[in-house]
Design goal:
57 residues, mainly alpha
Protein backbone atom coordinates (compact mmCIF):
# COMPACT_ATOMS: atom_id res chain seq x y z
CA UNK A 1 0.00 0.00 0.00
CA UNK A 2 1.31 3.43 -0.90
CA UNK A 3 0.38 7.00 -0.16
CA UNK A 4 -1.98 8.22 -2.91
CA UNK A 5 0.41 11.04 -3.77
CA UNK A 6 3.05 8.43 -4.70
CA UNK A 7 0.95 6.61 -7.30
CA UNK A 8 1.98 6.49 -10.94
CA UNK A 9 -0.11 8.57 -13.35
CA UNK A 10 -2.17 5.60 -14.54
CA UNK A 11 -2.75 4.41 -11.00
CA UNK A 12 -3.83 7.88 -9.92
CA UNK A 13 -6.36 8.08 -12.77
CA UNK A 14 -7.69 4.63 -11.89
CA UNK A 15 -7.96 5.55 -8.19
CA UNK A 16 -9.81 8.78 -9.04
CA UNK A 17 -12.19 6.88 -11.35
CA UNK A 18 -13.00 4.34 -8.64
CA UNK A 19 -13.73 7.09 -6.12
CA UNK A 20 -15.83 9.01 -8.65
CA UNK A 21 -17.98 5.93 -9.35
CA UNK A 22 -18.49 4.75 -5.78
CA UNK A 23 -19.76 7.29 -3.23
CA UNK A 24 -19.25 4.81 -0.38
CA UNK A 25 -15.56 4.40 -1.18
CA UNK A 26 -15.23 8.17 -1.60
CA UNK A 27 -16.70 8.67 1.89
CA UNK A 28 -14.47 5.94 3.31
CA UNK A 29 -11.45 7.57 1.68
CA UNK A 30 -12.28 10.87 3.41
CA UNK A 31 -12.63 9.14 6.79
CA UNK A 32 -9.38 7.21 6.41
CA UNK A 33 -7.55 10.38 5.33
CA UNK A 34 -8.92 12.23 8.35
CA UNK A 35 -7.85 9.42 10.67
CA UNK A 36 -4.37 9.40 9.11
CA UNK A 37 -4.08 13.15 9.72
CA UNK A 38 -5.03 12.63 13.36
CA UNK A 39 -2.38 9.92 13.68
CA UNK A 40 0.29 12.00 11.95
CA UNK A 41 -0.46 15.50 13.22
CA UNK A 42 -2.83 15.09 16.15
CA UNK A 43 -5.64 16.83 14.27
CA UNK A 44 -7.73 16.51 11.13
CA UNK A 45 -9.52 18.81 8.72
CA UNK A 46 -12.97 17.28 8.87
CA UNK A 47 -15.59 18.03 6.20
CA UNK A 48 -18.15 18.65 8.93
CA UNK A 49 -18.39 20.09 12.43
CA UNK A 50 -18.12 17.30 14.99
CA UNK A 51 -20.06 19.34 17.55
CA UNK A 52 -22.88 19.87 15.03
CA UNK A 53 -22.93 16.14 14.28
CA UNK A 54 -23.13 15.09 17.92
CA UNK A 55 -25.75 17.70 18.77
CA UNK A 56 -28.07 16.01 16.24
CA UNK A 57 -27.75 12.62 17.98
Amino acid sequence: MRHPENLADGEHRQFAAVLANCPELKALHAHVRGFAEIQMFGRAKLPFSASAYFSQQ
